[in-house]
Design a protein that fits this description.
130 residues, mainly alpha, two-stranded antiparallel ribbon, 6 helices, 4 strands, binds calcium ion
C-alpha cells in the first residue's frame, strides 16, 4: 500500500531520531548533534534529564505516528531497517508501540549516562556509541 506523505521531510527527521536515538546518531556532525541536544534541553541547564528526554520522545512518537494508531508501523518509518524493527518489536506484532520505543531509548539513555547521575551532558551524548 502506498500512502502519500506530505510531511515526509519532517518524518524522516523524526523517524531517524526515534530509531537512531536523539542527539546520538553517528552520522550526524558534532554541530548537528549539539543543536539537537540544545532543542532537547528545554530548561537550558546544559544537561538532558530523563524527563526532557522522555518528553521529546513523546513528541517525536506522536509526529511519526501519522495515522494516530498509537503504533509506528513499517510504512511510517522513512528508512525502515528490518533489524531495528525486529530488535525493538518485543511482542513481534510488526509495529512499534510507544512502550517498545521508550524502553529501547531509555536503555540507550542509561548507557550514555556514564556517571549514572540521571542526566546526559553534551559530552556524554557526543561520546555515546551505540
Ligand atoms: Ca536540561
Ligand atoms: Ca501509526
Ligand atoms: Ca510491537
Ligand atoms: Ca551523566
Amino acid at each position: 500500500m502506498i500512502k502519500s506523505k506530505p510531511l515526509s521531510g519532517m518524518l524522516a527527521i523524526s523517524a531517524t531520531l526515534l530509531l537512531c536515538t536523539v542527539s546520538l546518531a553517528q552520522e550526524r556532525t558534532v554541530e548537528e548533534r549539539t543543536a539537537i541536544f540544545g532543542l532537547y534541553d528545554t530548561n537550558n541547564d546544559q544537561k538532558l534529564s530523563r524527563d526532557e528526554f522522555a518528553t521529546e520522545l513523546i513528541n517525536l512518537f506522536i509526529s511519526a505516528d501519522v495515522d494516530q494508531s498509537d503504533f509506528i508501523e513499517r510504512d511510517e518509518m522513512t528508512n525502515p531497517d528490518p533489524e531495528e524493527i525486529t530488535d525493538n518489536d518485543r511482542n513481534r506484532d510488526g509495529k512499534l508501540s510507544f512502550d517498545e520505543v521508550m524502553q529501547e531509548k531509555l536503555a540507550d539513555f542509561n548507557a550514555a549516562d556514564r556517571d549514572k547521575d540521571g542526566h546526559l551532558t553534551l559530552k556524554e551524548a557526543l561520546e555515546f556509541k551505540q
